[in-house]
Amino acid sequence: MEIYYELVELGIIKKCPKVHLTDLVGDYNYLGRAKEIAKELDDNVECVPSYAETRQLVLEYTILPLGGEDIMTKLYKGASRHACLLYGPAGTGKTLLAHAIAHETAATFFNLSPMNIARKYPGKAAVMVEAVFEVAKGRPPELDEEGNPIEEVAKHPPAVIYIDEIERIFEASKKKKKGMSAPSGEEPPSRITKIFMKQYGKLTTADRVMVIGCSTKPWECEKNKDFKKMFTKDGGKMLYVPKPDYSALQMIWKTLIQKGRGVKLPTTFDIQTLAHLSTGMTAGKINTIVNDVVTDWRIQKVQRGQTLHIGEFIQAMARQRQVSKEENAAFDKFREKFAMKKKKGGKEKKKKGKKKKK
């Protein structure tokens, strides 16, 4: 228990906010389904998952395996699925999904992000990582003076190890030598890589531990062997969280204004125009716009009868940028690269199977 309290005091174990998977608002993209069919005939057709599909995949890849002690062993015989990479532009909801995974499964939330572990356990990275995995895999119950357990503790409690900017943990060796990853006087985030992979390799299907990595630049570590081992082998998964589509944008605007700020929109409010003008923006950018416009002072005016109009949001929108074409192209290239590897791997397995039959 001393280790547990030490990790809490250092801010590595954090209280997870009450976030649900449905907080990533968005419906199925029915046009997207048509694109999926078209992509089978033409590889040049752009096809990204809708937010409804993203929620479904997060449920399958992370929440379901953490949901029960026996589910992991029944679903993934011979492979332990303990890692999921969420990648996409900044502000698309990757951290929200990580919090939702921990909250929905009542998991202990460990934050090993580079920004969070900076200047903690200086020179003792191994001690910190070993402590995290020791607590994550389970802890013995507290005993009273007679040696009886004070409280019932799950043998394998669920745990989420969250790493934001995971590309800094698995950065290329050239960058390590140049010292680009950390300011002077600080140890680089990659100091935990070796011991982390060692402890990660010891996880079994009996351990209800899930590593959730988030990245806005996954291509920076795509050649790293440890990165490939964690997210492309032994059942690890990579999930693209794209910018919202038109239908999702309408839902995001309405949710952030009405639920987020508690302001009822009149029936005449043109939410469709806002969604159209904000095409290419992420939910994070829209949240900033809403907070800039719907201030406490403006809410008081609404209560007096002065309704909101879209002109206020359009002015604030001009100060925010969309996801650039170059950034979209980089994510598409990364997705295609790993999709091609999966296809090649599947074909090789089929060929081996045919040879054995002969």
Which SSEs are present, and which pair or pack?
Blueprint (H helix, E strand, L loop, with lengths): L1 H8 L3 E2 L15 H10 L11 H17 L3 H5 L7 E5 L6 H11 L3 E4 L2 H4 L7 H13 L21 E5 L9 H6 L14 H8 L8 E7 L9 H8 L4 E4 L5 H15 L10 H7 L5 H11 L2 H8 L6 H8 L7 H33 L1
Parallel strand pairs: 2-5, 2-6, 3-4, 4-5
Antiparallel strand pairs: 1-3
Helix pairs in contact: 3-5, 7-9, 11-12, 11-13, 13-15
Give a verbal description of the structure.
This protein starts with a helix and ends with a helix. It has three domains: 2-144 and 152-242, Rossmann fold (3-Layer(aba) Sandwich), CATH 3.40.50.300; 246-317, Helicase, Ruva Protein, domain 3, CATH 1.10.8; 326-358. Helix 11 crosses helix 12 (271-277) and helix 11 (246-260) packs parallel to helix 13. With 358 residues, the chain is of the alpha/beta class. It is 48% helix and 8% strand. The chain has helices at residues 2-9, 30-39, 51-67, 71-75, 94-104, 114-117, 125-137, 173-178, 193-200, 225-232, 246-260, 271-277, 283-293, 296-303, 310-317, 325-357, and strands at residues 13-14, 83-87, 108-111, 159-163, 209-215, 237-240. It has 16 helices and six strands. Strands 1-3-4-5-2-6 form a six-stranded mixed beta sheet, sandwiched between helices.
